Amino acid sequence: MRRVLGTRAVGHTGTLDPFATGLLVVLLGRATRLARFVESSDKTYLAVARLGARTTTDDRTGAALGEPADVSGLSETVVRNALVGLGGSGRQRPPAYSAKRVAGERSYRLARRGQVVDLAEVPVTVHRIELTEWRPPEVGFRATVSAGTYLRALARDLGEVLGVGGHLTALRREAIGGLRVEEAVPLDRLAPDTPLVPLTRILAHLPTVELDESTRAAVRHGRAVADQADRRTGGPADGVAHVALLAGGNLIGVARSEGAWLKPVVVLESP
Fold first, then answer.
1. Are 169 and 159 spatial neighbours (Cβ–Cβ below 8 Å)?
2. Same domain? 143 vs 122
3. What are the backbone angles phi and psi of residue 154, rounded to the nearest 5°?
4. CB atoms < 10 A from the CB of 132, how many?
5. What is the mean pLDDT of the chain?
6. Domain end call among 189, 216, 244
7. Interatomic CA distance for residues 181 and 229, integer angstroms
8. Do you find a cis peptide bond into 137, omega within 30 degrees of 0?
9. Do 52 and 151 belong to one domain?
10. Which domain covers residue 217, as residue numbers?
11. 66-104 per-position pLDDT tens digit
């Protein structure tokens, strides 16, 4: 994208596993400063897990662990119920081969050196999970999850719940927040005149406040402005009460709501 669009100011909002496909949101120019708000959005995936076999990485790229297990006793109903049981809020153990840091070093680097990695469980939410296909020993499923949830770990946990083990064999990211892969531009079609997605769509999950000229000038200089909660639209607000600041329908910045004030945390418009 840097080469095609002729700019160095390019940043992505979360890598995919090497064998995965699907949506990658890329931000340009000052919009790169909005990455954290995209990364924190819920994500939807279409995945395939193979039951009856565990691997070191919890996906098809890892080495097999133990002998394959017999899955002939599993029915579609049993598998579907096990999937449903993975939904909701809970705690998840990240894969040993992940980007999590252990004493300042990536977990996957330690694992590749043969060190035992025991990562602490982290809170995750599986908002929705459903069976899409049952073709033993493979099970297809679609899941909408909170940021930081590993689909590899869901495949592993599904196998553990069913008592046969399992790992992920295919993964496609279909959506990040309100952005869907069907709207994305394939890399081989990227051109200098490719239409860009408006920033207001990128942050459509946040409530918005339209600024007048005086408050717009204050925000340009990074100053807090009075919170106009009664004028907010959209949302609902995220967990830390961020608000998108607009002027003339254009995104000017993002503020944190603190008491009676909106305190800018990202300002896109120059003073």
1. no
2. yes
3. -65, -40
4. 12
5. 89
6. 189
7. 33
8. yes
9. yes
10. 206-267
11. 999 999 999 999 999 999 999 999 999 888 777 777 767
User: Letter for the amino acid at 13?
Assistant: T
Rg, the chain, Cα only: 22
Q: What backbone phi and psi angles, to 5 degrees, belong to 93?
A: -90, 115
Mind telling me the catalytic residues? Answer: 17
pTM for the complete prediction?
0.88
Q: Enumerate the H helices of the chain as residue ranges.
A: 2-5, 35-39, 76-85, 107-112, 151-162, 199-202, 213-220
β-pairing, 122-135 vs 88-92, is antiparallel
How far apart CA 119 and CA 107 sit, in angstroms, is 8
> How many domains does the structure of the chain reveal?
3
Q: Which of 185, 263, 258, 192 is nearest to 222 (CA)?
A: 263
Which helix (H) or strand (E) segment is 43 a member of? Answer: strand 43-51
Contacts of 258 (CB under 8 A, 6+ apart): 224, 241
- Is 153 inside any structural domain? yes
**What's 30's DSSP letter?**
G
Check: CB of residue 150 under 8 Å from CB of residue 99: no
Are residues 222 and 169 part of one domain? Answer: no
Let me know whether 47 and 166 are in one domain: yes
Residue 74 contacts by C-beta under 8 Å, 6 or more apart in sequence? Answer: 51, 136, 162, 164
Q: Are 47 and 138 in contact (CB under 8 A)?
A: no
